[in-house]
Amino acid sequence: MGYPISTGTKCLPSQQLYKKSRSKIPQQLLHTGTDPGKLGHSGTAGRGGVSMPSAFQFQCHLVLIFLAASKGETRYLEVRDAGEDDPFLLLSEDLKRELSAGQIYRRSLRCIDMLSTEGQFTFTADQPQLHCATFFIGEPEELITIHYDFVNIDCRGGDFLKVFDGWILKGEKFPSSLDHPLTTSQRYVDFCESGDVQRSIRSSQNVAMIFFRIQQAGNGFTVTVKKNSNLFPCNVISQTPSGRFTMVIPHQHRNCSFSIIYPVVIKISDLILGHLNGLFLKKPSAGCAGVGDFVELLGGAGLDPSKMFPLADLCHSFHGSAQMKIGCDNTVLRMVSSGKHINRVTFEYHQLDLQETETRKENSIEEFCFPSI
Fold first, then answer.
1. Which is higher by pLDDT, 199 or 282?
2. What range(s) does the Corticotropin-releasing factor binding protein N-terminal domain occupy (predicted)?
């Protein structure tokens, strides 16, 4: 027996998701300023709402990255400098052969870059570089280890080199502060403060990032990136717009979010929470309040699940099919666990096409997901 959550799209689709795949990434998205915790910050919003200008710029950046990644069969993606015409380059056949032969992959980093492969990466400034970042992403079941091989920066002169456990863009973090085992300040590792004491940093999920400021030409650093297996993946950003995943939380009091940075159709086929069968649509005065173990579906236009709008709650176990169309720029399946049960949810997802979203516009909730026009 199926459990249809909704037949309509729950967020207004962003038409620009399908039109901007070759736009350039604006450099101002990565403004570090004096507070690295507010990387690119231009205002905050409460749960279910975001600032239109920042949300649009932020989402263009992320969606372009993931649209490019979805076009290839590889797990590697790099982002060119913001000033170049084509911001993306997919893995070449030569590099595939090199990696399959067991050789260590090496290349230079750009000021703004993205990587999903292991290797050794070097950045050398050819001019003052004030607002730079590299984003790392692995498969859902992988953790990322970043090791400093060589660092030559002027910490006293204002340079910095920091690792962040997760991603942060426009002041929004993934995982959110509610879902990460460390405090926000503990998620930063500053080379200028730790030095040789902590040369290797391991992420808590499949994404991590470094951001840096290097003002003297010729200075730079080299890092080695490795992947480690994660037996029970918790917080995940999907590399692709479609897939299937099983999230398991074994007797742990924690919250886990699976983020899909696309409008999607998501279908939950199996949910085990140690309760009786049942399903509740999200209502202002109802839902799973008071239930220690549940799954919620969230939609929004930002990165932080805690600032997204809750669309539906699933409070009890079931076997079958629960499907929902979510036309938001970002969709998150979030499991909340009390630690009293072995909780498990299996789901699959695929990207909504433009025709699917346009056919049911009358059921969209405009005030929760804004149009990007």
1. 199
2. 103-228
**Is the pLDDT confidence value at 202 over 90?**
yes
**Cα–Cα distance for residue pair 335/345, rounded to 1 Å:** 8
Coil, helix or strand for 85? coil
Residues 166, 211: Cα–Cα separation, whole Å: 12
Q: Which residue has the tokens 């629960």?
A: 322
- The stretch 240-244 carries a mean pLDDT of 94
Domain coordinates in residue numbering, the chain: 16-229, 236-363
Of 106 and 365, the structure prediction assigns the larger pLDDT to: 106
Average pLDDT of the chain, as a whole number: 75
* Longest alpha-carbon distance in the chain: 65
Q: How far is CA 220 from CA 40, 99, 132, 208, in A?
A: 22, 25, 12, 20
Amino acid at 148: Y
Please report, to the nearest 10 degrees, the dihedral formed by the alpha carbons of residues 250, 255, 256, 261 taken in order. 170
Question: Would the pTM of this model clear 0.90, i.e. be above it?
Answer: no
Measure Cα distances from 27 to 36, 58, 80, 114 in Å.
16, 11, 12, 14
Q: Under CATH, what is the fold of the domain 236-363?
A: Jelly Rolls (2.60.120)
Annotate 245-262 with DSSP letters as a single string: EEEEEES---EEEEEE-S
